[in-house]
Design brief:
- By secondary structure, the chain is α+β, with helices and mostly antiparallel strands.
- It has a single domain, classed as Ubiquitin-like (UB roll).
- The chain has helices at 23-28, 54-57, 65-71; strands at 2-6, 12-16, 49-51, 81-83, 96-99.
- A 3-stranded mixed sheet has the order 2-1-5, with no helix packed on it.
- β1 (2-6) and β2 (12-16) form a beta hairpin.
- The longest helix has 7 residues, at 65-71.
- The model has no long low-confidence stretch (mean pLDDT 96).
- It binds FE2/S2 (inorganic) cluster.
- FE2/S2 (inorganic) cluster (FES) is lined by residues 24, 37-39, 41-48, 70, 83, 85.
- Keywords: 2Fe-2S, Iron, Iron-sulfur, Metal-binding.
- One of its GO terms (cellular component) is cytosol.
């Protein structure tokens, strides 16, 4: 799916992310700045936070209890914040905008 990662400086980086990768992998493997993913996708670091716009968040599978719990450790979480390693990319997400936060720490 084509994912539009919006960097903290407002720049859009549109990349094609294969189905089955997570949103985190789509950013990290394409060298995009803004995601640290210290734990490598194990839902135990909260440094892969992204913010999903309202119109897209409702279409995603809701966060698991583990993700909700880990979100407490994320930097300045807001409505629409998710951990990108916990969101598998599907073709239905084609065109989705993913905002990368200013900081992950
Ligand atoms: Fe660590 Fe997502 S990469 S919680």
């Amino acid at each position: 799916a084509t994912i539009n990662y919006r960097l903290a400086d407002g720049t859009d980086q549109v990349v094609d992310v294969p189905q089955g990768w997570s949103l985190m992998e789509g950013a990290v493997k394409n060298g995009l700045r803004g995601i640290l993913a210290d734990c490598g996708g194990a839902c135990s670091c909260a440094t892969c936070q992204v913010v999903i716009p309202d119109d897209w968040i409702a279409r995603l599978t809701p966060a698991s209890e583990e993700e909700e719990a880990m979100m407490e450790f994320a930097a300045d979480p807001q409505a629409g914040s998710r951990l990108s390693c916990q969101i598998p990319v599907t073709e239905a997400m084609d065109g989705m905008v993913v905002q990368l936060p200013k900081t992950q720490l």
